[in-house]
Amino acid sequence: MTRNRQPRKARSDFRLQGRKRTTTLHAREQVRRQFRPRRVRILFVGEAPPASGRFFYQADSGLYRAIRDTFEAALPSLRSADDDFLEAFRALGCYLVDLCGTPVDRMDRRLRRHICAAGEARLARRLRQLRPNIVVVLVRSIASNVRRAKAAAGWSGVYLELPYPGRWHRFRLAFRRKLIPLLRKALRETPPNHSRGEKEYDRLVRTSGAPR
């Protein structure tokens, strides 16, 4: 009897952990949706939310800091915003989504590739729904997945693949060197088509010294 109870308990614990994980991921997605622009101009695509619980839209991840610092280099006025960066990111028509809906960074390589491949259909749906002008891939390892997704969605536009700005200094520099010119060029184009976004866009560009 003891031998039979333990597996049931283990399965019960696993299901409970799964529910907690789903609730956490659901909460993250709710936060993400709060920062979705009405018109997405630049769509950033990451691999997946990290297993650590950190999250770009919680302003507590390394990716958040790398993107914020790069935007501040392109728009110096954002340095004074600090806590308002996510609002400014939204107002500029920028949005970040993930290829995968669940964390993959602690999975083995084979399973990770499988989950990324399964995420292509999900990303294709988002591309058809959001219709961004620009797509920026934040992790080169998922570039082939994103290319297949955009082909499936029939999406065309400006497309950029970046190295992940992680611990390697040369990758962080390459990330900034490639993204800053794109941001400055995009800022010369028409701002998002809603009054609050237009006003925020104009304020940011006017005070940043970025070319229009």
Mean pLDDT comes to: 82
Silhouette = globular
Q: Summarize the amount of helix as a percent range.
A: 55-70%
Name of the level-1 CATH class: Alpha Beta
What summary fits the major beta sheet? 4 strands, parallel
- What is the CATH topology assignment? Uracil-DNA Glycosylase, subunit E
The end-to-end span amounts to 74 Å
CATH superfamily: Uracil-DNA glycosylase-like domain
Q: What integer value in Å does the Rg equal?
A: 19 Å
Main sheet: strand order: 2-1-3-4
Q: Outline the low-pLDDT stretches.
A: 1-22, 189-198, 204-212
Would you tell me the structural class of the helices and strands?
alpha/beta
Which second-level CATH architecture applies? 3-Layer(aba) Sandwich
Topology as a string of helices (H) and strands (E): HEHHEHEHEHH
Tally of discrete structural domains = 1
Percentage of residues in strands:
5-15%
Can you walk through the features of this model?
The chain has 212 residues and is of the alpha/beta class. It has one domain (39-208): Uracil-DNA Glycosylase, subunit E (3-Layer(aba) Sandwich), CATH 3.40.470. The protein is built from 7 helices and 4 strands, in the order H-E-H-H-E-H-E-H-E-H-H. The protein has helices spanning 2-34, 62-74, 85-91, 109-130, 143-153, 169-186, 195-208, and strands spanning 42-46, 94-98, 134-137, 158-161. The chain has a 4-stranded parallel beta sheet. Strand 3 (134-137), helix 5 and strand 4 form a beta-alpha-beta unit. The model is unreliable at 1-22, 189-198 and 204-212 (pLDDT under 50).
